[in-house]
Write a structure and sequence with these properties.
Number of domains: 2
Oligomer: single chain
Radius of gyration: 25 Å
CATH class of the largest domain: Alpha Beta
Shape: globular
Structural class: alpha/beta
Distance between the termini: 67 Å
């Protein structure tokens, strides 16, 4: 009797100790580093070949996700009663062996001397340098004045003028700024040659990404974009050889804020460009499911949470001969965190609102999966009260790491949060409350700025929801040396940190879904 009484008292004390513990915390504890690792070692395995959009590997990843959703009882929220939303693509592939550039008797091969968008082009044309190529007639800014660009190749600097950076692209257009691409069409240029003052490694990466161009047939205009070429430094030097300004001078002066005025290159100097492109059709699928809310009224509203499932596939080999871009952090980490969140909500107590889970295809090709969903939603868009985005939450800066590519990685107890300062202070307040009562992560707002040079507010899937007025918040742990490289492997993930971030997100998700209030609508 005494032993039974003692056990009863212990149980009572334990229950009292946790009487004020929020409902979601018990569910959060089911999210473990071991489970995250187990999922990620499949999602980012060589067998899935980098999950390109579209690809067999991405399809297998989607099937893996769906098999778990079915087992846990999540309801399908895709098209026609399925877990999928299908994107149809026109796939344009550069035929690299047949594509080349010639100037002054020298020939350059695709991927070595230059890269280009997969837009067919066969021309010999003169060259006109136009600085950064941005114009604003309302402010009297016109780098094209006095220049003839009809049937010419427009030579332009990469990047944005300072006013465009400060405003952001959306507001800059409203303020009358016109991009180089729009100006090329307006002035009759046949192509743009973009000066990108980075090294050949950058050219190599662009070659892999630009060897294929894909667009959602249902959403994109049929007219192809202006052909865009990025030359190697060797080709660029040859283009400006014998001119009043060398390529090196033009690059240096642009970086110092004293650009060379626009001018036409020598009339006898012409660039011959041949881009052979093959076009086919293809499809890819996003995965969409939901956990139904517990309130008979509020269950018709949704808190949406998403992560892109795709990566960049198979490409140029690295120094070890590895050609598979596994994408463990980008964005295997977000995808498996979302899977653990789905299990925690589906198998435990449920908040009042429903929770919509989205694994997007096509993020790496231009945020296409989230764009398709927000243009053709499978649940009423007006019923979505908030969007949470998880993209790259798996890495930590290691002690004594002096690699400059890792300088902006977050610490083991830190995560970057993007959204509250820019457009969604309501979300920030809820997150701070959840974080302070649970794991006390350091919530770093460094990227929560429309004017930050990395422009991360515009570079992940949440931005398509913000464009529809839906407040959004984005979790991220930083860029690193393995970003978009074959070396982004599961063994480099900090699973303890990833579990803490995912548990914190569950708390935010629950509080937003269970509250009678909803965050204020926003504008981009």
């Amino acid at each position: 009797m005494k032993r039974g009484l003692m056990l009863g008292l212990i149980a009572l004390c334990w229950g009292l100790a946790f009487a004020d513990r929020p409902t979601w915390m018990n569910s959060a504890e089911t999210i473990t580093p071991t489970d995250l690792r187990a999922h990620l070692e499949f999602i980012a395995s060589d067998a899935l070949e980098g999950r390109d959009t579209p690809s067999r590997g991405l399809e297998l990843a989607g099937m893996y996700i769906v098999s778990h959703l079915q087992r846990w009882g999540l309801k399908p929220a895709g098209e026609n009663g399925t877990y999928y939303q299908t994107m149809t693509y026109q796939t344009a592939t550069v035929q690299t062996a047949e594509s080349r550039i010639e100037i002054g008797g020298r020939a350059f091969r695709y991927g070595e001397g230059f890269v280009a968008r997969a837009v067919p082009l066969n021309t010999t044309a003169r060259l006109v340098y136009v600085g950064n190529g941005w114009s604003n007639p309302s402010k009297g800014i016109d780098p094209y004045e006095g220049l003839d660009l009809q049937d010419a190749i427009m030579v332009v600097h990469a990047g944005y003028p300072k006013p465009v950076q400060e405003l952001g692209l959306e507001k800059a257009r409203e303020a009358g700024w016109v991009s180089p691409e729009e100006n090329a069409l307006k002035h009759g240029a046949v192509a743009i040659l973009r000066i990108d003052p980075n090294d050949m490694e950058r050219i190599d990466r662009l070659a892999r990404f630009w060897s294929q161009r894909r667009a959602i047939v249902e959403l994109e205009a049929n007219a192809p974009p202006v052909p865009l070429i990025v030359p190697s430094r060797e080709l660029l030097n040859l283009i400006f050889a014998g001119e009043a300004h060398s390529a090196e001078e033009i690059i240096q002066r642009a970086e110092m804020g004293d650009p060379v005025p626009p001018f036409a290159l020598g009339q006898r100097k012409q660039l011959s460009v041949k881009l052979e492109v093959q076009t086919t059709s293809a499809t890819a699928r996003s995965v969409i499911a939901y956990v139904e809310g517990s309130d008979p009224v509020l269950k018709h509203e949704f808190v949406s949470i998403g992560a892109h499932l795709d990566h960049v596939g198979v490409g140029r080999a690295d120094s070890r001969g590895d050609t598979i871009y596994n994408g463990a952090d980008d964005n295997g980490s977000g995808s498996v965190a979302l899977l653990e969140l789905a299990e925690a909500l589906a198998t435990g107590p449920r908040p009042k609102r429903s929770v919509l889970f989205l694994w997007y295809a096509g993020e790496e090709k231009g945020l296409l999966g989230s764009r398709l969903f927000t243009e053709r939603p499978t649940v009423p868009l007006e019923n979505i009260v908030v969007n949470i985005n998880i993209d790259m939450i798996g890495r930590s800066r290691q002690p004594n790491d002096t690699n400059p590519r890792n300088k902006d990685l977050s610490a083991p107890d830190e995560v970057y949060v993007i959204g509250p300062r820019v457009a969604s202070p309501d979300l920030g307040k809820v997150l701070e409350r959840v974080n302070s009562q649970y794991l006390n992560l350091k919530l770093n707002p460094m990227y929560d700025d429309k004017n930050h040079p990395e422009q991360l507010y515009y570079r992940s899937d949440h931005v398509n929801f913000v464009r529809k007025g839906i407040p959004a918040i984005f979790f991220f742990t930083g860029l690193h040396e393995d970003y978009h490289r074959p070396s982004d492997h599961p063994d480099k993930i900090d699973y303890e940190k990833m579990a803490r971030i995912t548990r914190t997100i569950l708390g935010l998700l629950w509080e937003l879904a269970d509250s009678s209030e909803k965050p204020a609508r926003v504008s981009l």
